[in-house]
Amino acid sequence: MSDAPAVQIHRLSKSFGGIEVLRDVDLTVYKGEVVSVLGSSGSGKSTMLRCINWLEEPDRGTIRIAGTRIGVDDKGRKMNNRELAAIRARTGMVFQSFNLWPHLTVLQNVMESPIQVKGMHKDEAHAVASALLEKVGMAEKADAYPFTLSGGQKQRVAIARALAMSPEVILFDEPTSALDPERVGEVLQVMKNLSAEGYTMIVVTHEMEFARAVSDQVVFLEKGLIIEKAAPEKFFTRPETERVRRFLELSA
Amino acid sequence: MNGQAWMLLLEGAWTTVWISGIAIALGVVIGLVIAMVRMARIPFIDQILVLYVSLARATPLVTLSLFLFLATPTFGIAMDRNTAAILALTLNTAAFNAEVWRSAFLSFSREQKEAAMACGMTNGTFFRRIMLPQMFTSSLPGLVNEMSFLIKSSPAIAVIGVVELTRVTNRITAVTYEPLPPILAAAVLYMLIIGALLKLQAIAEKKANRLAM
């Protein structure tokens, strides 16, 4: 299945307390693609992202990671904790609030999953983690604890932690929304570098310039529906719907 | 007080230390297990544990010790004094520890769990590698507090005839007719025991990884 898309979402639906947050969402993300997901708060962007690695369980629809269905196996049986973990290990996620583990150093945060989940040898994990921290510009903070870092630094460590599992896709859930304005740039720069290196990324964001410069596809969600899906030049210059036109005007 | 009296006191202190030590070790682990089972909210079992915790916290140690020592033979369980004493102390401290652990469970951030899940950790790996080390650090002051309470309330087991540090002072007084010196000496020994416990806590906290708040 090496040529399967990195992520295939088919007719994904999800409700919270009777309110439909996602309605029949379809999205295919190919290897090496960067997809930006835009939309106002409450449009379902984050929920869609969290369904991809089953942090939220969808009500209906199928999601495949590199061809393998997540959450439910081929016989229609719900996956158990271990099976879910095995497929989640093939995705990476970067959270708005970083979610680093405070009792571990920067280096240990990055090494933990390869050792515990992949069974990687400690020396190898150390080498992998050091290289990734170098990549995100955090090598000199390897032995620091998370609480000594700025938000931008924490987020770069969180990105290295996600990369450490060599995921098929990295899910970014508003990665710069909790940052001081002057720290946003350093995180976006790291993400730009990753896209240039060919990583597959789905990015829920409010950063229009980033979406325009880096994305292969831009998706706009409104009340749980994808109302526009286009290449960034088209999306930002010739949007098809009035809703997106208004959104772009207000965000400009 | 002569040398023999001091020997008796030290023997009493040793009895207090080893009986309390076993109860503390068992109580910390059993408390954790109770808290874990309670977090799972299994119907019926949850209610039983709530009842146990409430009863154990409300029952004086003297009463519990007497009950276990006197009542168990009628159920056909023969229990020597020391076993009954350890059981009484363990049942008591486990209930308090369960509450300490439970509050650590309840205050643990969901976000850290999501990060672990997203990295492909199973629930077990997450608990062992991410949650438990932090719960241990955050619960340690409460647990050590309860340990020192346990040691200080351990004279209750004298009521079933265990010759621990307080009971031994009576024996010395019975010979010397001077109650004050052995009681003061016992107080100093209690302070040394608790002091050693607090020293261990300080070492553990230093070794335990820091927590970011």
From TrEMBL, chain A:
Membrane topology, from the record: Peripheral membrane protein
Keywords, comma-separated and alphabetical: Amino-acid transport, ATP-binding, Cell inner membrane, Cell membrane, Membrane, Nucleotide-binding, Transport
Presence of keyword ATP-binding: yes
Protein origin, superkingdom: Bacteria
Chief location bin: membrane
Pfam families: ABC_tran (PF00005)
Matches recorded under SUPFAM superfamilies: P-loop containing nucleoside triphosphate hydrolases
All copies of domain ABC transporter, residue ranges: 7-248
Stored SMART domains: AAA (SM00382)
Keyword Cell inner membrane: yes
One GO CC term on file: plasma membrane
GO molecular function, one term: ABC-type amino acid transporter activity
Family: Belongs to the ABC transporter superfamily.
Name assigned to this protein: Histidine/lysine/arginine/ornithine ABC transporter ATP-binding protein HisP
Organism in which the protein naturally occurs: Pseudomonas matsuisoli
UniProtKB/TrEMBL annotation, chain B:
NCBIfam families attached to this UniProt entry: HEQRo_perm_3TM
UniProt source species: Pseudomonas matsuisoli
Protein name per Swiss-Prot or TrEMBL: Amino acid ABC transporter
Signal peptide stretch: none
GO annotation, cellular component aspect: ATP-binding cassette (ABC) transporter complex
Pfam families per record: BPD_transp_1
Subcellular location: Cell inner membrane; Cell membrane
InterPro entries associated with the record: AA_ABC_transptr_permease_3TM (IPR010065), ArtM/GltK/GlnP/TcyL/YhdX-like (IPR043429), MetI-like (IPR000515), MetI-like_sf (IPR035906)
Family as reported in the entry's similarity comment: Belongs to the binding-protein-dependent transport system permease family. HisMQ subfamily.
Transmembrane segments: 12-37, 49-71, 183-204
Keywords from the UniProt entry: Amino-acid transport, Cell membrane, Membrane, Transmembrane, Transmembrane helix, Transport
ABC transmembrane type-1 domain ranges (all copies): 13-201
